[in-house]
Design goal:
- The chain is mainly alpha-helical.
- It is 64% helix and 0% strand.
- The radius of gyration is 18 Å and the shape is elongated.
- The structure holds zinc ion.
- Residues 81, 83-84, 86, 101-102, 104-105 line the site of zinc ion.
Length: 107
């Protein structure tokens, strides 16, 4: 297995995820009070905010998972599905480096 390639793939993905986290953090800034914007657009803003917050949470979880994957690269338990203990195909690792499940167990 090409350890260096996998490491780079994970690092690239972490940088992208960090950028996304920063964008979501800006978007989820506090909603302006009622008198600043109309009530309807305030409701919209609150809805959008919860969507953004959910996306932010997901991005943070992905970042943590990537960090864990990166720490395992080159070790014996890297690329092993934590459910069925079978090796995860390299294509899957490169496509979804944050996952520690094979496709079958991820479903
Ligand atoms: Zn599995």
């Amino acid at each position: 297995m090409n350890t260096e390639k996998i490491r780079q793939r994970i690092e690239n993905e972490m940088i992208k995820t960090e950028q996304r986290i920063r964008e979501y953090e800006e978007l989820s800034a506090p909603v302006a009070p009622d008198d600043a914007i109309g009530r309807v657009s305030r409701m919209d803003a609150i809805n959008n905010k919860s969507v953004t917050e959910a996306a932010l949470l997901k991005a943070r979880q992905k970042h943590n998972a990537l960090q864990n994957s990166l720490a395992k690269v080159g070790k014996t338990d890297f690329g092993i599905c934590i459910s069925c203990k079978q090796p995860i195909p390299i294509e899957r690792i490169l496509f979804r480096p944050e996952s520690n499940h094979c496709v079958k167990c991820a479903r």
